[in-house]
Design brief:
The structure is a single chain. The two termini are 25 Å apart. Helices cover 68% and strands 3% of the residues. It has five helices and two strands, in the order αααββαα. It has 125 residues and is mainly α. 1% of the residues are buried. The chain has two domains: 45 residues; 75 residues. It has a two-stranded antiparallel ribbon.
């Protein structure tokens, strides 16, 4: 069993124990602390650095496609002829606000963060 498998098995045990306990049980505090400890060890493991390069590249290609699709959902902006402001066609909400909401619903920042992390893995080798 790899370190990752062991940590995930530990996490499953903690989840099962937490599910079995009542919300007011004093043992929950120790289990939540253990859960946080396991999470920090999982973050430190940096699993992506141990993955095959081809697998990381495949995920990166998928994320680029996902990001392109998400950006395609945005609305096009037009400049107001006299005000110079970005306007949404037929609306009172600025196009930039609408696009921010679209990006949030498509989790664009999470996709960009993941792309950045995978690019760093490939770059640093």
């Amino acid at each position: 069993m790899t370190d990752l498998d062991g940590l995930l098995a530990e996490m499953r045990e903690v989840f099962d124990a937490l599910d079995a306990l009542d919300e007011s049980d004093p043992e929950r505090e120790a289990l939540v602390a253990k859960q946080e400890d396991i999470r920090s060890r999982l973050r430190a493991l940096d699993y992506d650095r141990h993955r095959p390069r081809a697998e990381v590249e495949a995920e990166l290609r998928h994320l680029y496609k996902q990001l392109k699709s998400a950006r395609g959902d945005r609305i096009k902006t037009i400049k107001g002829r006299f005000t110079g402001a970005d306007l949404a066609v037929g609306g009172r909400i600025p196009a930039t606000d609408i696009n921010e909401r679209i990006d949030a619903s498509n989790q664009v920042s999470a996709i960009e963060n993941r792309i950045e992390a995978l690019e760093r893995v490939l770059r640093d080798g």
